[in-house]
Write a structure and sequence with these properties.
Layout lengths: L2 E6 L3 H11 L4 E6 L2 H10 L4 E5 L7 H11 L4 E7 L3 H9 L5 E5 L3 H18 L2 H9 L8 H11 L4 H9 L2 H11 L11 H8 L4 H15 L5 H26 L10 H4 L2 H9 L1 H13 L5 H9 L3 H11 L4 H9 L11 H18 L9 H7 L3 H10 L1 H10 L1
Parallel strand pairs: 1-2, 1-3, 3-4, 4-5
Helix pairs in contact: 2-3, 5-17, 5-18, 7-8, 7-11, 8-10, 9-10, 11-14, 12-19, 14-15, 14-17, 15-16, 17-18, 19-20
The protein binds fe (ii) ion (FE2) (2 copies).
């Protein structure tokens, strides 16, 4: 079945130009001249993606996408806009109304490429078994409202004190952020939230809010406390190692906007631990005995889906930028043909393996040899680097 896109713009020239550009692509295309017309189409057709102009009479793009978000949360949303409306458009992205934006005028090849990328991710996630399992779940964790507010402040380049004041309005987040910064892995201890935020870096803050929310969602279940701690430590250590290995391999700092992706790579495990705890524990224990087998394959065998697909679904459903879903989807198979974030996923793949080695019984990490080859590194050099890193050794002793 073809993927379908609905374009909404009050300028007929824009709609006909889009039609011309995408004529050769394999999509079912719908066009609407107003928000009202767009909603009518949504009511009768199965649409996968809505791309709406921002500035339209009667109902503007934000108002339309807000309705789409409320009534059709599975539909992907993108804003289309002219340069002059740039800040309004960014606000729509920050507040989760649109996953991303496309500026007018666009480069035809880039536009086609962007759309293919979006649908590659979507189609990888939407396997029938994965969808069946997701539709059987009682609820999915919601993207916290604080995330949008903090993203807005970060985008406006506000002072860290102002960001801290916003977070302090929700004390449970303060406790969790301090728990993350003051963990055994970081070797630091802050009392003030502001100091902790400076340590974490501005762009990491919003992902930490998501990470906290995921664990809140899990804590409301009845799973073993031990599993919760193991996951918490694993996510956190994987994030630290992502920074460390990125710097080692690419000789530069991990870009700020990717500062916390390691925290979210296993988001799907939160859903497994919450809803399928026995099966999840069974597959996890089986995997710990034979770490050379991919944990996704064992989960697939037992549950019919796996944490990579579930996490990819969740982060895609939250309408976050594409690389988030890709980290979930491909951290166990970073060189997959459809993956457009191969370098980043390869680093997370290494970080994930070494994080398990560190937290577990020190077994050889299940690093795919082709990933080392792709990154042009020798595994023995990575092993040596990990071994001599004083932070990791200190952590190991502290936890022993
Ligand atoms: Fe994983
Ligand atoms: Fe992991």
């Amino acid at each position: 079945m073809k993927n379908s896109i609905l374009f909404v713009d009050d300028d007929p020239n824009i709609l006909s130009s889009l039609k011309r550009v995408l004529r050769s692509e394999d999509y079912q295309l719908f066009f609407a001249g107003s928000g009202r017309e767009g909603l009518e189409i949504l009511g009768r057709e199965k649409i996968d993606l809505v791309i709406s102009d921002y500035k339209m009479p009667e109902m503007n793009g934000s108002e339309l996408l807000k309705k789409v978000q409320a009534e059709y949360p599975d539909i992907m949303r993108i804003m289309l806009s002219g340069f002059v409306e740039h800040s309004d458009m960014l606000a729509a992205v920050q507040f989760g109304l649109a996953r991303n934006y496309i500026t007018k005028p666009w480069d035809s090849e880039q536009l086609k490429n962007r759309l293919r990328h979006l649908f590659d991710i979507r189609n990888s996630i939407m396997t029938s078994n994965n969808l069946k399992i997701i539709s059987s779940l009682k609820e999915l964790p919601a993207l916290p409202a604080l995330h949008s507010r903090i993203s807005g402040l970060i985008e406006q380049d506000r002072e860290i004190g102002e960001i801290a004041a916003e977070i302090e309005k929700e004390p449970s987040y303060v406790a969790k952020i301090l728990r993350i910064t003051n963990s055994a892995f970081t070797g630091v201890s802050f009392i003030s939230l502001k100091d902790a935020l400076v340590f974490l870096g501005r762009s990491a803050i919003k992902d930490i809010i998501i990470y906290s929310e995921l664990f809140d969602f899990l804590e409301t279940g009845r799973q073993g406390v031990n599993t919760l701690h193991i996951l918490w430590d694993h996510f956190h250590l994987c994030n630290i190692l992502t920074h460390d290995l990125y710097r080692l391999i690419f000789q530069k700092k991990l870009p700020d906007h990717l500062g916390s992706v390691g925290l979210l790579h296993d988001a799907g495990k939160i859903l497994l631990a919450k809803y399928f705890f026995r099966d999840f524990r069974q597959s996890h224990e089986k995997w710990r005995k034979s770490p050379d087998v991919c944990s996704c394959d064992l989960e697939q065998e037992i549950l019919g889906t796996n944490h990579a697909l579930l996490g990819g679904y969740l982060l895609d459903w939250w309408n976050l930028p594409e690389y988030y879903a890709e980290i979930c989807l491909y951290h166990h198979d970073p060189l997959a043909e459809k993956n457009r974030s191969r370098e980043l996923c390869s680093i997370v793949h290494l970080a994930d393996s070494y994080a398990w080695q560190h937290l577990g019984d020190g077994k050889e990490p299940a690093v795919r040899p082709e990933v080392c080859e792709f990154l042009n590194v020798e595994k023995k050099d990575l092993d040596a680097h990990i071994k001599k890193n004083p932070l990791h050794n200190k952590t190991k002793n502290q936890r022993a």
